[in-house]
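Input structure tokens:
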């Protein structure tokens, strides 16, 4: 498969590149810094990994990456939008205490950034019915299962879930669209005391993409990395 991972520098994004590359897939790793040492070193082991500059808050960078891929007739079989942030001020303040700048910044990356990446990259996804688009969202984006923790992040991820549902309707049966909660991972974002390693989430997502995990065909496209339906 030709695979694009947006937000591939570390954490789950890096593990996804590693997992798919091991199986011989062709990877475009979208990163803010193309001098990323771990990815450049991985690309020496697996020749089919290419780094491309993609900052989801910089529309021009995504537009340029998409243009280059289009010029090469690169058809995307699997697009994984993984980029995401939690800002420092989100964890220790509630919805009334968080600064407007922190709130805005979170939505800029997690929500508007998703829209920007999809706007330019979805046109390159195979529309024959076998192309796939995975948005890495979060259980925090569940509206019904709502706490008061991480207010900005939760709002941004609920909106990202909604983007996935709208995209699914827009593309109808031409592509498979999933919004995936990757589990609580021990990454820079999740911290050292989370439940799973990002490699486990990457394995789950690999199994979903290659149909090794069957997803029950409900109306929801919001699932976890094991293929279980999530509460919207
Ligand atoms: N960790 C968890 O427990 C957990 C739980 C549920 C959902 N998630 C979701 O899973 C995804 C991956 O999380 P993670 O734990 O692997 O996080 P992470 O270790 O903090 O990595 C975040 C990734 O997003 C990239 N990124 C941030 N801002 C970007 C931008 N403007 N443009 C492009 N890329 C950008 C980062 O690149 P740089 O290195 O350049 O900053 C990095 O590659 C996120 O969408 C997150 O919301 C995580």
């Amino acid at each position: 498969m030709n695979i694009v991972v947006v937000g591939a520098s570390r954490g789950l994004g890096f593990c996804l590149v590693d997992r798919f590359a091991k199986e011989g897939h062709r990877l475009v790793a979208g990163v803010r810094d193309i001098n990323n040492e771990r990815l450049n070193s991985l690309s020496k082991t697996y020749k089919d990994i290419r780094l491309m500059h993609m900052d989801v808050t910089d529309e021009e960078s995504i537009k340029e990456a998409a243009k280059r891929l289009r010029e090469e007739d690169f058809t995307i079989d699997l697009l994984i939008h993984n980029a995401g942030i939690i800002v420092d001020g989100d964890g220790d303040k509630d919805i009334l205490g968080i600064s407007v700048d922190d709130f805005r910044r979170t939505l800029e990356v997690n929500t508007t950034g998703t829209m920007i990446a999809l706007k330019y990259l979805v046109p390159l996804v195979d529309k024959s019915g076998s192309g796939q688009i995975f948005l890495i969202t979060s259980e925090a984006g569940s509206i019904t299962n709502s706490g008061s923790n991480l207010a900005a992040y939760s709002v941004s991820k609920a909106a990202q879930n909604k983007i996935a549902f709208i995209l699914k309707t827009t593309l109808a049966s031409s592509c498979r669209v999933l919004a995936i909660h990757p589990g609580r991972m021990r990454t820079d974002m999740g911290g050292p005391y989370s439940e799973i390693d990002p490699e486990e989430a990457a394995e789950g997502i690999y199994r979903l993409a290659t149909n090794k995990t069957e997803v029950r065909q409900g109306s929801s496209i919001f699932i976890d990395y094991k293929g279980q339906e999530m509460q919207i």
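The two ends are 30 Å apart (CA to CA). Residues 2-224 form a domain with the Rossmann fold fold (CATH 3.40.50.720).
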